[in-house]
Design brief:
Number of helices: 0
Structural class: mainly beta
Helix content: under 10%
Oligomer: single chain
Length: 70
């Protein structure tokens, strides 16, 4: 979930530079089915005037997860 100023009208989420989710309703949130490995996540907020605000990259490592098929 991302909490941002009221100027943001849309948030896009990226994992490993691939777009995985888009939200247009506040509070902005997204889900992702994780894959094992190391990933880089970032978000981009878009204002009504077209300005883009990008988050910092966040690195994660997935070693296993509860929903994983054996």
């Amino acid at each position: 979930e991302v909490n941002v100023s009221s100027d943001i009208k849309k948030v896009l989420w990226y994992i490993d530079d691939a777009s995985v989710a888009e939200a247009t309703t506040f509070p902005f949130s997204a889900t992702w089915i994780p894959q094992k490995g190391t990933h880089i996540i970032h978000a981009r907020g878009m204002t009504e005037t077209g300005k883009e605000i990008r988050s910092r990259d966040v690195g994660i490592s997935v070693v296993e997860f509860k929903g994983e098929k054996q």
